Amino acid sequence: MRIFLRLFMTILITFTLSVTLWAGGQSEAGSDNGSGNAGEVNVYSHRHYEIDKQLFTEFTEKTGIKVNVVNADSDELIQRLKTEGELSPADLLITADVARLVRAQKDGLLQAVDNQTLKERIPAYLRSPNDYWFGMTKRARVIVYHTERVDTEELSTYEELTSEKWRNRIAIRSSSNIYNQSLLASLIANLGADQAEEWAKGIVQNMARSPQGNDRDQMKAVAAGQADIAVVNTYYVGRMFNSDDPDEVEVAQQMGVFFPNQEGRGSHINISGGGVTAHAPHKANAEKLLEFLTSDTSQRLFAQANYEYPVVPGVSEAEIVKSWGEFKEDRLNLSELGKLNSQAVRIFDRAGWK
Amino acid sequence: MSNRRGWLIVLIVLTLLFVLPFAALLSGVFSSSDTWGHLSSTVLPRYIGSSLFLLLFSLFGVYSLGTVTAWIMTRYSFPLKPVLEVALIFPHAVPIYISAFAYRGLFNYGGLFHPIMPDFSGPWAAVFLFIFGLYTYVYLAARAMLATFGGQFIDTALMLGKSEGALFRRVALPLMRPAAVGGAVLAGVEVLNEYGALKYLGVESFTTGIFRAWFSLGDITAAIRLSLLLLLTVGILLAAEKLQRGKAGFTSSGRNPSPVIPLKIRGIKGTLLTAVLLFPVTFGFFIPLLQLLFWSIDASLLQQWGKLAVITTDTLVLTLSASVAAVSIALLLGFIPLLFNGGISGSLASLPSLGYAVPGAVIAMGVMRLSISADFTINRLFNPLISPLRGEPLGLIFSGSLIVLAGAYLIRFIAVSYKPIASAYTSIGGVYVDSAATMGRGPIASFFKIYLPLMKRASLFAGILFFLDAIKELPLTMILRPFNYDTLATVTYELASDERLKEAAPFGLILVALGVGVTIITMMLSKGNRKVTQGEKKA
Predict the structure, then answer these.
(1) Chain B interface, mutation test: which of A28, A40, A48, A214, most B Cβ atoms within 10 Å?
(2) Same domain, A86 and A175
(3) Gyration radius (Cα) of chain A, Å
(4) Which residues in B lie closer than 8 A to residue A23 (C-beta atoms)?
């Protein structure tokens, strides 16, 4: 028995040691902490679009800096940053929504970056007031309607969607979706919590079906006649319109895009953006990457390939996006959306919005 | 007994390794939570209701379908049986979230079934997917039980002149029960664990609730408390299963388990049996598969072949290594209690199986906490020595490494390997350890010389079940994977959740094909095995 025990312990120790050494070698190969000439930048990104990968490759070709990426949900990435603390290899956090950037900032996971280029190129309301994060692309959350069943005359504001006439006619996704949370946060900021809660309850009452699927799915429900209008992000409409899938194109062709609240404060917008992490080992490279992503070329590519709105003024949009026309944006500073996020989630829960 | 103390230490060390990540997580449970009150007053009752609904109906379906198919397959012989022998396990190779995407694609605008029914969503849709995706747990377990013990009981019953119906009700059902309930418990845990599909179908459950508390509200304490409630539910399920198994233990009376000789059914009746068994295969496998195939062809599968090859290789290397490790550990975990006649050692050995009850994302958090604190400790201890030599601190060693990811798979899925192995050990019993001991041979000898050869088939099943689960694993992989690393599951999910279903399809297809391939190989192996044993018997 002793022999067996000894054998077991030997195997255990050898295994642990070899794993440690192997893992050590791995991480050495993977990251190049601290050294000034390190040709790397480590990105934690929620954005999983082809165009991002393309842009990272171009960045590497141009600067020689290799881009390493972990793709996951923003919340998971934030949690990961939190746990990793000062040992985190991440340099840049990229999310698809401003509320998550604000949360990362609040949790002390980002650092302020005094970068003139970024400040000059990105309008103030699309970046953190104290330089913790920067918008990369912009999207509007709009109403799409079935062009045959709905007249634009019927549409006006987000608030009006709670009126009786939309009973069982609205398709909108789950309240766990961050875009809806930010939309509700904007309503809290503009109308106050009580009215925002009334709004959420009103929408729940008018839903054509229990929330499911993503924004594309809502438009499919409208095309299928399950609902007449849907609330979606603009780039989804663009992507469906230009899809390889004829069914999706057919769906998109039946949709009209309506920008709500044009008479008042403007339509709700959100950004996808990034911030340099608090313990970034390659801070300078992270800034370079951010600068690259806000260059005219990158901005144009974001706009053309993903139908998002560029954050840099003067860069042109994709044809389909242009065809929807100019619109008035809600100029609420986006950091407000982050601050009101958890209040928004609670309101959703109380309103019974799944 | 004293020479067996070493084994107990091994068992304790192993169990600790599995439990440590939970301890790391539980240390967070008493932190203050400012959303708990809000959650328990608003959404908690809904989560409980919805989870119970899913559990009740899915398990009813899973149990009925699993036992009936297992019985028909064991008792009768009919047209296409060899094909069904393999095909009935195929649904297990299709991740529930992939079937969800496929079915929704079919019922959605432009889908084949759209004109018949315009919608595939809600709790009933989820129950449907669960039944046809998870019945394999019950089927495989019940099948193995019948194969081992069926013969002697059925022969006896037939001698007593029992009818076929009575044979099923009075003999087969009670005989299958311990194994089938064990399988159903695993399926139930899978139901409680599902996230991707439920989110997509718009169904609330405990798991979506955990993610909501943790992600949407950023309250990890509330998330941990919810997972504890979930854990409690599963604990009760497991305990109940243990109880019923304890009452109904079977031991083989003969030296050789006698195989069931199937009754030949021809003509219309035979065709009918074939048709009945084609049902689960069609809904659980062929329909989603055909949809994936159709999309893949549409998306010109071969355009992405480079990416497909790299990701497939990465996935295989990771999953296969983890499977081998899982079976080895399960063999050890199952063996040790035999030396002590169960008791505390038995409970200890089944403790690691609790990981199966915890959502992947929660395990990922625990593992991450643990590996990061190990990294911090190593850095604190060795940096003063190593930093000057290396010119930089050690940095992260375990965190974000493949070893930790594989370890997390073990924690999450060891139950799947442990169940069939433990029940095989139970059916063999501890007698051989004692008889070896009377001949002066120690437990090591009896483990390698007697038990290991007898465990071949169970190990194979344990390995395949683990492989099939690990290769499908999603949330945990998303959180723990290293930089620039993807598995088939993560790519499929990323693309599909963005509703780029056609682009996702080729990756999903490979995922399913791999599962199916492994299933077929295993079936062939175990068939060869059985022939050998039967041949021996004749000789």
Answers:
(1) A48
(2) no
(3) 23
(4) 397-398, 401, 403
User: Can you tell me the ipTM of this complex?
Assistant: 0.72
Report the alpha-carbon distance of residue B455 to residue B443 in Å, rounded.
15
Identify any residues that bridge with A276 across adjacent strands, giving them in sequence order: A92
Provide the domain count of chain A.
Answer: 2
Highest mean pLDDT among A172-181, A270-279, B173-182: A270-279
Span A342-352, pLDDT tens digits:
899 999 989 99
Q: How confident is the model at residue A292 (pLDDT cuts 50, 70, 90)?
A: very high
Same-domain check for residues A14 and A122? yes
Same domain as A196, residue A168? yes
Same domain, A290 and A246: no
Q: Indicate whether A159 and A18 sit together in one domain.
A: no
Q: What is the DSSP letter of B260?
A: P
Query: Where residue A56 sits, what CATH number does that domain have?
Result: 3.40.190.10
- Cβ neighbors of A45 (< 8 A, separation 6 or more) are A52, A69, A70, A71, A77, A92, A93, A94, A95
Q: What is the pTM of this model?
A: 0.79
Q: Using a CB–CB cutoff of 8 Å, tell me whether B39 touches chain A.
A: yes
Contact A80 B368 (CB under 8 A): yes
Residues A119 and A167 in one domain: no
Domain encompassing residue A301: 2-137+272-317
Measured torsion, CA atoms of residues B468, B473, B476, B481, in degrees rounded to the nearest 10: 90
A133 and A144 within one domain:
no
B214 to A354: CB separation less than 8 angstroms, yes or no: no
A210 bridge partner residues = none
Test A349 with B395 for CB contact under 8 angstroms.
Answer: no
Which of B39, B214, B395 is closest, CB to CB, to A31?
A: B395
And the tokens for B14? Answer: 């192993």
- Cα-based distances in Å from B529 to B314, B418, B449, B523: 31, 21, 18, 10
Alpha-carbon gap: A221 to the closest alpha carbon of chain B (Å)? 7
Same domain? For A169 and A60 the reply is no
Instruction: Spell out which residues of chain B touch residue A71, defining contact as CB-CB under 8 Å.
Output: 478, 490, 494
